[in-house]
Amino acid sequence: KTTMKKISIFLILGVLIFGQIVWAQDSNITRQSDIYAIIKEKYKPSLLPTSPFYFVKELWRGIKLFFTFDPVKKADLESQIADEKLAELVKVYETSKSKEALQKAVQNYVKTQEKLANRIKNLEVNPKVEELITKLSESNTRHLILFDELIAKEKDKLIIDDLIQARQSSDAVT
After folding, report:
1. In 10 A of CB 55, how many CB atoms?
2. pLDDT in tens, 29-82
3. 145: closest CA among 23, 61, 47?
4. Contact present, 114 and 169 (Cβ < 8 Å)
5. Which residue among 60, 90, 140, 144 sits deepest, i.e. has the most Cβ atoms within 10 Å of its Cβ?
6. DSSP per residue, 119-167
7. Comparing C-alpha atoms, which of 22, 15, 33, 14 is closest to residue 145?
8. How far is residue 130's CA from residue 92's CA, in Å, rounded to a whole number?
């Protein structure tokens, strides 16, 4: 069983790496503004981590995760939440002058990416999981491109460090 799990992990990692290479070569979406526009349009972040009512949004996400019983669907939902938190992070980056606000948004994103990575590790390999892995690979490639663009244009060392931390957590999922 341990050997099968190791083979499964290597298979998943291979699919992720191959999927990133293929997606990066075939994709026309390579600029941060295009990627953010897509994420922003899909998720429309309004209630941000800087709001005192953000806990309500987090509570609702927790309830949805709790009542999602299929492990693959739960990982997919966690991926959607990661996309939402990326959109929130970028909106905080664009609108807030507070480094603390950005740090809070980064920590929210990192925590979600860590949960997602743990969920993926515990999935048994099957066609639904392989499909999810491909989807996650494409999503995380967009996240990495977006973070690379934000890091490249930022001048503040502390903010760059926060963005690098978020990028690394996204990279760890793939």
Report:
1. 11
2. 445 567 767 776 777 888 999 999 999 999 999 999 999 999 999 999 999 999
3. 23
4. yes
5. 140
6. HHHTPPPSHHHHHHHHHHHHHHHHHHHHHHHHHHH---HHHHHHHHHHH
7. 33
8. 33
